[in-house]
Amino acid sequence: MPTLTAQDQLSVSQIQQDNISEATDGQLATTSSGNLATAEFGDLLLTDHSYLTAQTETYAQQAGASVSSAISGMQLSTTQSLASVSGAAFDQSYLSGEVMNNAMSVQQGQAEISSGSNTAAIALNALALPFQQQHLLMGQILQAQEFGGTVPAYTAPTAVAGTALAANGPLNAQDQIFVTAAVQNGLAETSAGTLAEQKGVDAATKLFGQWMTLDYTELNAQEAALATVGGGVVPTTTDATGQATLASLQSVTGAAFDLGYLATEIVGQESSITAFTAEVAGGSDLALVAAAQGGLPVLDSHLGEAVTLYVALTAGLTDTTAAPNTVAGQFLSSLGSMASMAGSITLVSSSATTAPATVSGTPALYVVNTAQATIPAGLGMVVAGPSAAAVTVTGGATAATVLGGASGLTFYGGTGGGEILTGAGANSVTAASTGGGNLAIVGTTGKNTIFATSGADTIAGGTGANTIGLGSGSNVVISSGTDTINVGTGSALVFATAGTQSVFGGAGGLTFVSGGTGATVVGGSTAATLFGGPGGTIQFSGATSGNLLVAGAGGETLSTAAATGSNVLFGGAGRNFLAGGAGNDTFVVGSGNETLSGGGGGNLFQFINGATAGGTDIITDFGASSANRVNLSGFSGNAVTAALATEKSGPSGTSITLADNTTVVFQGVTTLTGASFV
After folding, report:
1. What angle do CA 648, 650, 652 make, to 5 degrees?
2. What is the pLDDT of residues 621-639, one digit of tens each?
3. If I label 674, which of 179, 196, 233, 600 is the partner at 20 to 30 A Cα–Cα?
4. Up-side HSE of residue 322: CA atoms within 13 Å toward CB?
């Protein structure tokens, strides 16, 4: 363990306090700001500091530093003050506070980097510093734009060499594929973001470009460092698709650039989400997999913001493909080029009810701006404008790309599959019943009903209340809303990044990774693996045995109290609560201070030498069943005799201290014997 000085501890604590405070104030900005760019800035800070919160917990553990979820009295007072105002008054107070806070954070981070003692604490500050510098500059720019003053020139954040999480290479094939795809996408994103900063005319779009430049610079640096440690190859240029996209963006200007940039961002974020999701599912390098899992919520926020800005800007789109010098004409032309689609662009205008069955050449792009439209099979790409009341799209043998509008999308999949981005309305997406192609489905704020069939589908439902039914394929679901998910007969990998989930297992395998506030999981006929998330709750029920529930960083509740099978619960690093059910459950205690409730049956509580060192763990109902047992694994000598020699009795029960200084409290138990162990 590296030396931890008072300065090191203070710097780690200040970063975490700032993370929690900034995320809270950023959330307020998304609802209370009177300016779209300032609201977007708040959303950026909410995303960035949520990401930094998880990173801080990891680095703090490496540093041996303690962190708290409490903020200072001054920060609490600021948040309460912001909550009492809205509009321009909110913006003025919020932006002035951000400029002051981030200026202080930059100074504190630079001081720790230059004179700190603990390598992990220094690495954390090196990670946070570019975010703080960018947030400071953005706050200054927005403050000057909204309330007057000199707009500072943009300068790239300072890159500081830090100590990354150790990789455990060598990389497998999936790891290398991920590094190549993620870094190439990231290089294209940083270049496109720089173009947006330079060429964008809409303030929110320019700010979004700065956000992309910052985030992808950080993601690329982390992925490259880990890949290098694992012996991987890191690309230095983007691929042909990225180069073509950048060339297309160079060719347009003004409002057409803003629209074209945001359209390509939607497609680009989907591509990045696919690459990161595949790494989490199939990567072998633990550090790369952790980086991919930590990056998914960031990418999901990017996609949601790009869609929000895109919908806002397309409100002025007119029926004008015949006039290439107009904003709409330039946008449509550039969008067709960026999507690498040959053929004509068809604008479904307000006077039409159905798009023509064929157009000159192969149908490439339909733009719908009408009360109602049904797009025929054989399409290439569909963009539904905000004035479209409802759009029905029927896919064909060609892969479809569909961007839904504000008032609802109904999509019937064909054999070609495709990419579907729903809008804010009530949407329905149904894959082909047989022979369906693979679908990538991304929701936004709407209420979506999604039914997958036999394809290998990737579904991100968005923040709405979604119903997702999976079929026989191998599916990936990213859940950020209040979602109901039915697994079906195929395999499912479900990532919860926010919200609450109700998951019903089927005949296929289920892996659930929690990042939301709570989930209810009903097991199917095949055992499931469930990973908890910080502060979240998983309530599991079902009759199948062999399910695995794994706690994470802390503050989690994992419960099988309603289950009748025999399951395995793994503790984590924090203060977790693990509860068993009616079966004979096994509890593998982690490194945190955990509370364990066995429930019915004869349960096994396993303590592994070193894995639980120094913690205090409580078993609430050990005496409820004579079949309950404790297993001491990896301890030398006669570990049971040594543990019983430390037995102490008190009002709350009996406690023992293990050789690695772990204290185990048996509530309601007056004495232990050798028969209590196995």
Report:
1. 120
2. 999 999 999 999 999 999 9
3. 600
4. 3
List pLDDT tens digits, range 179-230. 898 899 889 999 999 999 899 888 888 888 888 888 888 788 877 777 776 6
Rounded Cα gap, residues 154 and 198, in angstroms: 10
Q: How many CB atoms lie within 10 A of CB 515?
A: 26
How many Cβ atoms from other residues are within 10 Å of residue 233's Cβ? 12
DSSP state of 230: T
Question: In this structure, are residues 179 and 234 in contact, taking their beta carbons and an 8 Å threshold?
Answer: yes
Instruction: Give the closest residue to 128 by CA, choosing from 115, 110, 141.
Output: 110
- Cα(445)–Cα(378) distance, integer angstroms: 28
Q: How are the residues of the chain apportioned to helix, strand and coil, as percentages rounded to the nearest 5?
A: 40, 20, 40
Q: What is the pLDDT of residue 13?
A: 92
pLDDT value of position 113? 86
403 phi/psi in degrees, rounded to 5: -110, 110
Helix (H, G, I), strand (E, B), or coil: what is residue 658? coil
Question: Is residue 513 classed as helix, strand or coil in its secondary structure?
Answer: strand
The H-or-E segment that residue 372 falls in is strand 372-375
In sequence order, what are the beta bridge partners of 596? 578, 619
Q: CA 518, CA 500: separation in Å to the nearest integer? A: 5
Cβ 441 vs Cβ 423: under 8 Å? no
Q: Per the structure block, which two tokens stand in for 514?
A: 């929690």
Q: How far apart are CA 118 and CA 141, in angstroms?
A: 35
Show the CA angle centred on residue 495, arms to residues 494 and 497, nearest 5°.
150
List, for residues 377-388, the tens digit of each pLDDT value.
444 455 554 444
Q: Per mean pLDDT, which of 345-359, 447-461, 561-575 is the most reliable?
A: 561-575
